[in-house]
Amino acid sequence: MVAIEGVERFCCLALSISLPGQVWFPGNETYVTSLASYFSAQQSSIQPQCIVSPKTAEDISLIMHTISSRISSNNTCPSDCKFAIRSGGHASLIGASNIPDGLTIDLRALNSIQISQDQSLVTVGAGAVWDDVYSRLHHVNRSVAGPRSAGIGVGGVAIGGGISFFGPRYGWTSDAVTDFEVALYNGSIVNANSDTNSDLLWALRGGSNNFGIVTHVTMQAFEQRDLWGGYIFHESSTADAQIAAFFYFNNATTYDEFASLISTFSYSAAGGFNIVNSLEYTKAVSNPPIFRKFMDIPYFGSTLRITNMTDLLSETAKLQPNGLREASATLTIEPTVEALKATVDAWNNSVSFVQDVPGIVWSLSLDPLPPAMYARHAKTNALGLTGRNAKALVIMMISATWSSSDDDGVVESSIKALVKKVTEATRRLGALDRYQYINYAAQWQGSINSYGRNNVNKLRKIRSKYDPAAVFTDWVPGGFKIPESE
């Protein structure tokens, strides 16, 4: 048995007894390997008292019962039972899926993928990664509205929204979840779907980790064969043409629902200024007309080809290596030419603040958010994107990767300054939207508040119903919490 001194590590000790071989402590090889597998260096550097690896929903039930029992029997707020929940560990937000001193629940062993007999549904463990889900479904010519990057865990995306290549046809990833299996604060296991606990289903579609631990999700699966996509690389001198092409593409009335785009303006110490467009068309059609304006812009490299989801994500993984320091923030705007230009100009001007940071990659990414995606299920999720009058929107991610913790302060302050500049500029132009996508957001942005007063009030009531002890509010400090007051 592992020796643990004192009562300050009660939960880790108790779980090491009740889940033998599934609790890892500092110095253990599996503990070290688990920490090294986080996407960001900040998350990897956090040292929990122990890492717990449940293999079943019943294991999670036991974990939650242990934690809740400890909390209810100790009125002095036992910090040893504060915990974090890890799915894929891809979030760059510090503490989102790891915790100092407390215990980290590593869900990656819950990675089953079960396709229904008629292939219309797939049930996935919350610790699976989307790469494996796509690969399994590819073999039967099916897919799901999951995210666009490799190494991302199912659970985190499913409760945060989730932007997909298939979003214009099916909505957010959260919208495509027909059933959440959830372990509540006291260890009870419930299902949330349109027939049972439908209020919890609504809340989990964007409400983050405030209600319980998602153990499995069931999603709609649809027929999907090969598609067209990849990256195309441009000189920074094409910026004005890029803005014009983006504006043309993201037209609410003519939007092609099979098309997906990410436009990224990037600076790196090694490569200077570049513009990289990720173009995808979810049919096996090369150079579809909707992308004509982008394809007409001179470029110096392209990986565009007929391929499949598994191959596309593999390519993405090569461009997003693990182990660097990471940070991001987000805004949502109406994509007028003036607002887009003001945003790109502000980003260009911000490069001078970070260009001397060793290893810096400083990026502005623009994700079209057409009403075909956000309005399709707006009343059945918590995101608060109703009442937009079918306007096209764009989600902006300001992101950075760098090498040394010595530069954390300058990078993070530069992100804040750029967000402030873009906020001021787009507000003056009447183009700023209140919505903030939590999977891109910085901790200081308070993104759940952007869902609007009515939705925040509703989320509070649902949280009180399913977590009356406020375990996931007070004992899970990471992630985005529901505001306690307006």
Automatic annotation (TrEMBL):
It holds the Pfam family FAD_binding_4. GO terms for molecular function: FAD binding; oxidoreductase activity. The keyword Flavoprotein applies. Keywords: FAD, Flavoprotein, Oxidoreductase. The keyword Membrane does not apply. SUPFAM superfamilies: FAD-binding/transporter-associated domain-like. Residues 44-224 form the FAD-binding PCMH-type domain. Belongs to the oxygen-dependent FAD-linked oxidoreductase family. This is Oxidoreductase. It comes from Polyplosphaeria fusca.
